[in-house]
Every structure is written in structure tokens, then in C-alpha cells.
Automatic annotation (TrEMBL):
UniProt pathway: Glycolipid biosynthesis; glycosylphosphatidylinositol-anchor biosynthesis
Gene Ontology CC, one term: endoplasmic reticulum membrane
An annotated GO BP: GPI anchor biosynthetic process
Keyword Transmembrane found: yes
Ranges that cross the membrane: 21-40, 52-72, 93-115, 127-146, 167-188, 194-221
Chief location of this protein within or outside the cell: endoplasmic reticulum
Subcellular location: Endoplasmic reticulum membrane
Pfam families recorded: PIG-F
InterPro entries: GPI_biosynthesis_protein_Pig-F
UniProt protein name: Phosphatidylinositol-glycan biosynthesis class F protein
């Protein structure tokens, strides 16, 4: 009986973290599969094109995960708030689009203010801004809705009251910190092909995204284990 209960708990944990697993495996596949299949990373050779293509593809993955799989694997009572019931206000599509464009503009301007060329390599800057915008806005808009006040409180102020809001905050911070930290290697005179803009910040954003998901999963798993013990 003990073994059966233990296996049942493990199965529930696997189901609970299935959405995060899909997201992490998708990014790992982007990093590893090209090198295995064709022998080199297209991101190094075609950084802008690869970033845009991956962003579009991963946005579809995120929409599938957050719109369908997330609600099935994570019941509303786990987060102490009914995110997926009729009590949640219906998001406005037009407001969501405006938020995406605003976030893209902020990312692009911030990147230039932090040292990216204003006119040179604008395609690379736009590709990075496109990537970071989708990594941050897609999960927040799907799970929180397009209410600016809610997004501001969670993403900007870091005021979270449940595991989903904490997950979204960690994720947003991870993307930005990862990009910022990775930019350190750009001015170094190592003359490596992966130092070319925007490769370091693209990789940094994705690594920060992955680390934030793993961190959130570890904290949540400990909380779930504690709840079951009590």
C-alpha cells in the first residue's frame, strides 16, 4: 500500500509538472537537435532568422501549453484562485495585442539604451525584442488575462499570492536577467562566432527562462510535499 501511494504521488507530480516539461524540452530541442542532425547550430550562422522562426514556433507551443495543457494538469485549487473558471474576466484581444506591442517597444528601446546599435544590426535587436516579448507576454496574458493592473502588480511589482503568479514573475525576471547577464560576453575580444549580436542575449533569455521554470518547479514541489505530509 505504501509503495502504491508513493507511485501515485509520483504520477501526480509528473502530471502536475507536464506543462513545464514540454516547454523545457522544446528549448533543449532547439539548442541540441540541429547540432546532432546537421552538425552545426543555425543560430550561429543565421542568428536573426533562426530567432524569429523559433519565436513563432515556440509561441505556438506556449499557446498550446498554457491554453489547454496547463488547466488540465494544475487544478484551480492548487493555486488557491480560480484562474480557469467563469469567475475570471474574459481577456480582451485588442488589449492583449496592445500590451504585446507596448512590451515589444519597451524591449527594443531598453536594448538600445543599454548599448545596442540604434540603426546597425536593427534586425538582430528586433529579433531579440520579439523573442523576449513573447516569452514574457504569452504566459502572462493567457494565465492572468489582459488586465493591465494585474500584469503590473505581478510582473513589475513582484506581488504574487499563489504559485501561478509566482511562476509568471520568476519567468519574466529570468528572461530579463538572463539577457542582461549574457550581454557581458559581447564586448570581450575572444573573436568567437557566438559573440555576435544578438546571439548571447537570445541564448541568455532562453537559459534564464529555463532556470526560472526549474526554480519555480523546485519550490512548488517542496510546497506540495509539505502539504501532503501535514
Amino acid at each position: 500500500m505504501i509503495t502504491t501511494n508513493k507511485r501515485d504521488r509520483q504520477r501526480r507530480l509528473l502530471i502536475h509538472f507536464l506543462p513545464e516539461t514540454i516547454l523545457l524540452l522544446s528549448i533543449l530541442a532547439y539548442f541540441l537537435l540541429p547540432s546532432v542532425v546537421i552538425g552545426y547550430s543555425p543560430l550561429i550562422k543565421y542568428p536573426t532568422e533562426c530567432t524569429v522562426i523559433f519565436t513563432v514556433a515556440f509561441t505556438l507551443v506556449q499557446l498550446g501549453v498554457y491554453c489547454f495543457i496547463w488547466s488540465c494538469c494544475k487544478p484551480a485549487q492548487m493555486d488557491e484562485i480560480q484562474f480557469f473558471t467563469c469567475t475570471k474576466p474574459s481577456p480582451s484581444a485588442s488589449t492583449g495585442v496592445m500590451i504585446c506591442f507596448a512590451c515589444y517597444a519597451i524591449m527594443h528601446i531598453a536594448c538600445v539604451l543599454f548599448g545596442a546599435p540604434l540603426f546597425q544590426q536593427m534586425e538582430g535587436t528586433s529579433a531579440w525584442a520579439f523573442l523576449t516579448t513573447t516569452l514574457i507576454t504569452v504566459p502572462n496574458l493567457v494565465l492572468l488575462g489582459s488586465r493591465p493592473n494585474s500584469l503590473y502588480q505581478v510582473v513589475v511589482c513582484g506581488k504574487f499570492e499563489n504559485t501561478t503568479e509566482r511562476y509568471l514573475y520568476f519567468q519574466s525576471v529570468g528572461v530579463l536577467l538572463g539577457s542582461w547577464a549574457a550581454a557581458v560576453v559581447i564586448p570581450l575580444d575572444w573573436d568567437r562566432p557566438w559573440q555576435v549580436w544578438p546571439i548571447p542575449c537570445v541564448v541568455g533569455a532562453l537559459l534564464g527562462y529555463m532556470v526560472s521554470i526549474l526554480t519555480s518547479c523546485i519550490i512548488t514541489a517542496k510546497e506540495l510535499k509539505t502539504e501532503k505530509v501535514h
